[in-house]
Write a structure and sequence with these properties.
The complex is a heterodimer of chains A (265) and B (292).
Chain A: E1 6-11, E2 14-31, E3 34-45, E4 49-53, H1 60-66, E5 77-85, E6 88-89, H2 96-102, E7 103-106, H3 117-127, H4 134-144, H5 148-151, H6 164-176, E8 182-186, H7 194-207, E9 212-216, H8 220-226, E10 229-234, E11 237-243, H9 244-249, H10 254-260
Chain B: H1 2-47, H2 53-57, H3 70-101, H4 106-118, H5 123-137, H6 144-168, H7 172-180, H8 185-214, H9 217-222, H10 242-250, H11 255-287
């Protein structure tokens, strides 16, 4: 296998040598003629939670969808630049099906399949050719998503019978079942109440031990609570990326400061 | 404060208009029902004297007392089964291709417009096509197969359009999350899209087949016979169907044949009702899949 790409990034004046799990290089993206990502370069580190913040329409969700080639499913899009996962370009000589298996995604609205709880977890594994014991995998994934205790007695109930927060954690369990390295989350808590959100955030913090997590959020407190690093986007450009506590206390850019202090957006 | 009072004054007239509107809707519904019930009662009363087991089990005859509708019932059932067997797989497959696989662009739009237009072409035109293509060119003769192929062409656009609409109604989150798990398009189609759209597709199929069972013109065009005193044993045999038998009886001058036609219409309605009922039961069975 190829070696992991090493890259040096500057954090508050200190040179830090870090493994880049995901490396975005000079990425441009268009919906038709609408230029939504402009020359974005970014590295994302393994086993960290990285938050993408910025006002609506700034391109943060689009970037997230570029990282597992979900944007290709929309007709009329165009991409330039490179996205490397573990040093390997996911757009050249790569199978999108394989890319999406390795880079899981949890969506804004909980969207379980209209099947039972355990079928929801097992389906992805099954279509990818899972050969092991299905019950074991279901339990393992539901435990990782902190849902096992709530559903272990009704694994054959319909997924729609769960609450919104439970459905979202079921979607996380479903994603983990195909053994991804990176989990992308697109505003996963925006449809949830505060208690369900707290539970989801707790789950995310547990997951970062084993997974690299990238989360898009509109909620700056949430970014502050769960992320190690934060990237601020504005009008399709990456304005600033830094350790979360740095970015929130001493932003380098005026636009970042204006946004996080609530002067716009 | 004055403006608030002004709004209250209008409340009475708004309520009155609402009542008039709902009254009009009720009258429209009653109008349709009354006409329909009158028709049914009239037909049943006229045909009642012939309805019975003998009518169902006898072949047509020149003597009204001996005439039955057996060959037409069997012909219609054959016809519907064959038509469904041909048009449903082709229609659903086309809809899947157009919705899920075909690259977007002007060519797809052109195809779409044409399919929509095909749904509006008079059925007799399909009959001419069937005569040229299936009866003569493929030399299938005046057979069940030629008739079923013609009928299948006739209802194909309806099935394609309704299946496309069923696929479009599936929330995009289902497709997205399935793809995000590393599923191939084929897996997404078979595991999610087809089962989820099956009830709506079934509704479209019911409507399409109900149209096919009542169609007469295209089958007259391809030369379905009006007098068949035997049952078809293969798809290449000549045949007749209920609407053609009814048409044949109404064309005769004797009053007895007129009432035989009425009895035939009652049978056609019963067959149609049974077909819709079974299709609805089948649809409800599929619907359990997405019960919430």
């Amino acid at each position: 296998m190829e070696t992991n790409e090493l890259n040096v990034s500057m954090t508050n004046g200190q040179a830090v040598l870090q493994e880049a799990k995901v490396l975005v290089e000079n990425l441009d993206f268009w919906y038709g003629t609408n230029h939504v990502l402009k020359d974005v370069s970014l590295d994302i580190r393994a086993n960290k939670v990285t938050a993408f913040i910025g006002p609506s329409g700034c391109g943060k969700s689009t970037l997230l969808r570029c990282l597992n080639r979900m944007n290709e499913l929309i007709p009329g899009t165009r991409l330039e630049g490179r996205v490397l996962i573990d040093g390997r370009d996911i757009y050249r000589n790569a199978d999108p099906v394989m890319v999406r298996r390795r880079i899981g995604m949890v969506f804004q609205k909980p969207n379980p399949f209209p099947k039972t709880i355990s079928e929801n977890v097992i389906w992805g594994a099954r279509v990818n050719g899972y050969k092991g014991k299905e019950n074991d995998l279901v339990e393992k994934c539901l435990r990782k998503a902190a849902l096992w205790d709530e559903v272990k007695d009704r694994l054959n109930a319909q997924a729609y019978s769960l609450s919104g927060g439970q459905q979202q954690r079921l979607c996380i369990a479903r994603t983990l079942a195909v053994a991804p390295d990176v989990v992308l989350m697109d505003e996963p808590a925006s449809a949830l109440d505060p208690i369900a959100t707290a539970k989801l955030e707790e789950t995310i913090l547990q997951l970062k031990e084993r997974y690299t997590i990238i989360i898009v959020t509109h909620n700056m407190q949430q970014a502050g609570r769960i992320s190690d690093r934060t990237a601020f986007f504005y009008m399709g450009e990456l304005v600033e990326t830094d350790a979360t506590d740095q970015l929130f206390t001493r932003p380098a850019q005026k636009r970042t400061e204006d946004y996080i202090t609530g002067r716009f957006g | 404060m004055a403006s608030s009072q002004q709004y209250d004054e209008r409340l009475d007239s708004r309520r009155r208009r609402g009542l008039i509107f709902s009254g009009l809707l009720f009258v429209a519904t009653v109008f349709g029902l009354v006409v329909l019930i009158t028709l049914i009662v009239d037909v049943v009363m006229q045909g009642a004297q012939w309805l019975g087991w003998d009518f169902l089990t006898r072949f047509p005859s020149r003597i009204p007392e001996r005439a039955g509708i057996k060959s037409a019932i069997v012909g219609s059932i054959w016809m519907i089964l064959l038509t469904a067997g041909i048009s449903v797989p082709i229609g659903v497959a086309s809809a899947l291709y157009l919705e899920e696989y075909a690259p977007r662009g002007w060519f797809l739009k052109l195809i779409q417009i044409n399919i929509n237009n095909l749904a509006g072409i008079p059925s007799v035109v399909y009959g001419i096509l069937g005569l040229v293509l299936f009866v003569r060119f493929f030399a299938l003769g005046r057979s069940l197969l030629a008739g079923a192929l013609t009928m299948a062409l006739l209802i194909l656009p309806i099935i394609v359009i309704s299946a496309q609409e069923a696929l479009r109604a599936i929330p995009s989150g289902i497709r997205e999350s399935a793809f995000a798990l590393g599923a191939t398009r084929r897996q997404v189609v078979w595991s999610h899209l087809l089962p989820m759209s099956a009830p709506s597709i079934m509704t479209g199929v019911i409507l399409a087949l109900s149209r096919a069972i009542g169609e007469t013109a295209p089958l007259i065009m391809i030369g379905a016979l009006t007098f068949i005193a035997f049952l078809p044993t293969s798809v290449l045999d000549p045949f007749t169907v209920l609407p053609i038998q009814i048409f044949n009886w109404t064309a005769r001058p004797q009053a007895d044949f007129q009432s035989l036609a009425a009895a035939g219409i009652v049978i056609l309605m019963i067959v149609l009702f049974l077909m819709n009922l079974s299709a609805i039961l089948l649809r409800n069975h599929f619907e359990k899949y997405r019960s919430r």
